[in-house]
Every structure is written in structure tokens, then in C-alpha cells.
Write a structure and sequence with these properties.
Blueprint (H helix, E strand, L loop, with lengths): L14 H11 L1 H21 L4 E11 L5 H22 L2 H11 L5 H6 L1 E6 L4 E8 L2 H23 L9 E11 L8 H26 L6 H8 L3 E5 L3 H6 L5 H17 L7 E6 L6 H14 L4 E5 L7 H5 L7 H6 L4 H4 L1 E2 L5 E4 L8 H5 L2 H13 L2 E5 L8 H6 L4 E8 L4 H13 L5 E7 L3
Parallel strand pairs: 5-12, 6-10, 6-11, 7-9, 7-10, 11-12
Antiparallel strand pairs: 1-3, 1-4, 2-3, 8-9
């Protein structure tokens, strides 16, 4: 597993992959909306009465004398007449006659609402389209309107002095029915509902990803920092804050963390591990303690260092005295060997924070601090350095900047995305290169 360089990567990600992360995390929500859309569409379709379609087609022709010029003139006249005939089809005169002829229980307004007309200038045809929930009614009205239109055209185009009409509407089809209902169109409605459901669901997921400010999943961590989550500690986050591992699954999780660290970079193993958090403790003190204990139980030598110089946190967990420690060793008032305390695990040592000092940040950022950490690393298999929350203490980043690997403890459901992003920015600006996350459940 490669190390994660946070110094030269955009911590938030860009483009479609960044937008896809919330969708992947909330795929159940998206699937829910799609299923709801399908169910609602099927239900509405089952409640809708089927709509039937019948169509009549009239061929419009005008009288022409023999000769190309006259034929062209007649064709142009027929095309011009089709616009007028479209209006004639929906006129009260034609509709009233059609209703009476077909003996339909409709008025002209109802019949007009069931009609649509269109023309084809190239084919010189006029289409009459009737739609109704009654198949027989649709067919009868389409036939009657076509017949009434033919009669009306003959009457209108009849010359005053008698003779052949100047133009005619000739039926091509009368009341041709569709083989199945034209509505509801279930396949089209399903496609539309899927498209709308997908848009709504993805929109809600994206809005949720903007509004929701707390880290709840490993995907949330990746979306903010691109850091790997090395372990997820089950059980109560409150137990971590008190320094207890909780139960057997938590112990196994810490063993998994130890293994994950060992395999992160096989060529250059991380021997100095810094542990910190964001705004609140988030269980960082317990993570550092249990990580050191787990390493020691595996038979490797480890020294646990409390670098929280203003608010020491580890000695109460271990039940050891707060004697001279890191502050005195870095300042040179005591030797390093004098501040090493034994624990009840033979391969584990502890260095307390020592006396509170006003210059904790500059002390931890000094070359002397780096050299001291290096000396501890040469004498032990691992050095685990606990630092206070990055956003609360100036010395926090200084405490992890000398580490081969910085671990940020995150409380799922408690740590916010803004806190984690600001922590990543602070660590990046301080020169921290390799970082990862250990997540635990928020306390209740």
C-alpha cells in the first residue's frame, strides 16, 4: 500500500471523481428514488384509462387544365387550400354535422378537444387525428369528421354557375385505428421516471454532501483528504477518550492497525509514528496508547512519547507519574535516559510531557527535538508520539512533523469535514508528507 503524499495533491479532489464520491456513498438513496419512481409510474399508469387513436387522411386536389403551367398552378392552389381546410375541420359547422351523423353524445367543444390536424405539403394530404378513451367513439368521430369535411369542401368549392368544384378533399383513410392504446405509454413513462428520479436523487445526494458537515464514512475522509483509513475502531468513542480499547473487536482493530502500518511502505518502514486529531481529542490519546501497547505485545520495542506539553494526556491512561519528561529532555536540563519510564510491558517505555512550558511550539519545532526523536528511533523499533489537537495547539503539528507517518484520529459522526480539511491544510503547510486516518465511532 503506497504512502499518501499530502504535500503535492489537491486534498479535496477535482472533477467528476469528486462528484462521484457522494453518489457512491449514498447509492442506497439513489436506488430508493429510482424504485419509488418506477412504483409510482406503474401505479399511475394502472389508474389511467387507456386512450385510443383513430385517424383519417384526406387528399386535397385542385382542378387543373392540361399543361405543365396549369398543373403547377393547381398544385400550388391545393397547397394553399390545405391551411384553410385545417381550420374548416375544427369549425362548428363540420363538427356539429359530424356529431349528428355519428350520433355521438358530445358537444362541439368536446369534439374539438379530441381533435388534432396536420398537413403534408409534399403529399398534399390533410390528417385528422382523434383520441378518446372510447375506441368506438374515436373511430366514429374520425370517420364522421372526414365525411363532413369532404362535404363542406365540395359545398365551398362549388362554382356559383354550377359545374365541377374548383377543389376537392378525397378520403384516403377513414377512421383507421391504432392496434393498441396510445396512452398511457408505460415504457416512455418508465424512462422518464427513471431520468427524473436519477436527477432528483443525485441532486439530493450532492446537496446532502454540501449540507452534511460531519465525517461519517471512510468515503467522507477520502473526499476531504485522500488519506487512507488504516483502521476503524468499533465500539464507543467515549471508551477511546477514556483510554480503554472497549472490547475484543477493538483490540483486533488495533492489531489490524499495526499490520496496516507495517505494510504501508515495505521498503522504508515507518518507525516514528505521530498521532494527533482535529478540533477535539477524538480519541487520539487512546489511539496512541493502544497502538504502542499492541506493538509491544508483538515483541517489538516501542517508546510512547507524550508531546502534549501544555495538557499532558497519557500518564493518567498508563497510571504513571507526571515526572520530568520531554520538555526537560529537549531543553537539555536532564538526560534522555533519565526521563524514560518503564511500563508493565517489558518492551514498552514511556516519556511523559514533563513540566508545562510557555514555549512549547518552538521547543518541539527545534533541531534538538528532531535529534531526540531520532535517537529514540535508533534505540527502539518504534516511537509513537502523541500530539494535542492540530486546530487547538500550535505545537501539535510540530509534534508530528518529525514522524515518518502522521495518524489523525477521527470520530465518525463527531469530527466535521471543515475540521478535517483545516487539519490537512495545517499539516501540509508544516511539511508533513505522509498521513493516514484511524476512525472510531462517536461516543453516545
Amino acid at each position: 500500500m503506497p504512502m499518501t503524499d499530502i504535500s503535492d495533491r489537491d486534498a479535496t479532489g477535482t472533477g467528476l471523481p469528486r462528484l462521484a464520491r457522494p453518489a457512491r456513498a449514498d447509492w442506497k438513496l439513489i436506488a430508493f428514488f429510482l424504485v419509488v419512481g418506477i412504483v409510482v409510474t406503474v401505479a399511475l399508469s394502472s389508474w389511467q384509462r387507456p386512450v385510443y387513436r383513430a385517424e383519417s387522411t384526406l387528399y386535397v386536389t385542385a382542378r387543373a387544365e392540361v399543361g405543365d403551367t396549369d398543373t403547377y398552378t393547381a398544385g400550388l392552389a391545393a397547397t394553399q387550400r390545405m391551411t384553410s381546410y385545417r381550420q374548416l375541420v375544427t369549425s362548428d359547422m363540420v363538427l356539429a354535422d359530424a356529431i349528428q351523423t355519428a350520433r355521438l353524445d358530445l358537444d362541439t367543444d368536446q369534439a374539438r378537444s379530441m381533435l388534432t390536424t396536420s398537413t403534408d405539403a409534399v403529399a398534399a394530404t390533410l390528417q385528422i387525428d382523434v383520441r378518446s378513451t372510447d375506441r368506438a367513439e374515436a373511430r366514429a368521430l374520425a370517420q364522421a369528421v372526414a365525411d363532413s369535411t369532404v362535404s363542406a369542401v365540395r359545398q365551398i368549392e362549388q362554382p356559383a354557375g354550377g359545374g365541377e368544384p374548383l377543389a376537392a378533399a378525397i378520403p384516403v383513410t377513414r377512421g383507421m385505428e391504432s392496434s393498441r392504446p396510445v396512452a398511457p405509454n408505460l415504457p416512455a413513462q418508465l424512462l422518464l421516471s427513471l431520468a427524473v428520479g436519477l436527477v432528483v436523487a443525485v441532486g439530493l445526494v450532492l446537496v446532502k454532501s454540501r449540507v452534511t458537515t460531519r465525517i461519517r464514512t471512510a468515503a467522507d475522509v477520502a473526499a476531504v483528504t485522500r488519506w487512507p483509513v488504516l483502521a476503524e475502531i468499533p465500539g464507543s468513542g467515549g471508551g477511546l477518550r477514556r483510554g480503554t480499547a472497549g472490547d475484543a473487536p477493538a483490540v483486533e482493530a488495533f492489531r489490524g492497525l499495526r499490520t496496516a502500518i507495517a505494510f504501508m511502505n515495505v521498503d522504508e518502514p515507518s518507525s516514528v509514528i505521530g498521532v494527533t486529531s482535529c478540533q477535539s481529542d477524538d480519541g487520539a490519546a487512546a489511539v496512541a496508547t493502544h497502538l504502542a501497547v499492541t506493538i509491544a505485545e508483538a515483541g517489538q520495542s516501542v517508546v510512547l512519547v507524550d508531546a502534549s506539553l501544555r495538557r499532558p494526556a497519557l500518564h493518567p491512561i498508563l497510571g504513571l507519574p507526571s515526572t520530568a519528561g520531554l520538555a526537560e529532555a529537549v531543553s537539555g536540563t536532564v538526560d534522555l535516559a533519565e526521563v524514560l519510564q518503564e511500563t508493565n510491558i517489558p518492551t514498552m517505555s514511556f516519556i511523559a510531557a514533563g513540566a508545562a512550558v510557555p514555549t512549547a511550539s518552538s521547543l518541539l519545532a527545534s533541531e534538538r527535538a528532531r535529534d531526540l526523536i531520532g535517537e529514540l528511533a535508533r534505540a527502539h523499533d518504534f516511537v509513537v508520539v502523541y500530539s494535542p489537537p492540530v486546530l487547538l495547539s500550535a505545537e501539535a503539528v510540530s509534534g508530528v512533523r518529525w514522524a515518518d507517518l502522521a495518524i489523525v484520529a477521527v470520530q465518525m459522526g463527531l469530527t466535521t469535514t471543515r475540521q478535517l480539511r483545516r487539519t490537512a491544510d495545517s499539516m501540509r503547510h508544516a511539511g508533513v508528507v505522509d498521513a493516514a486516518v484511524v476512525a472510531s465511532a462517536a461516543g453516545r
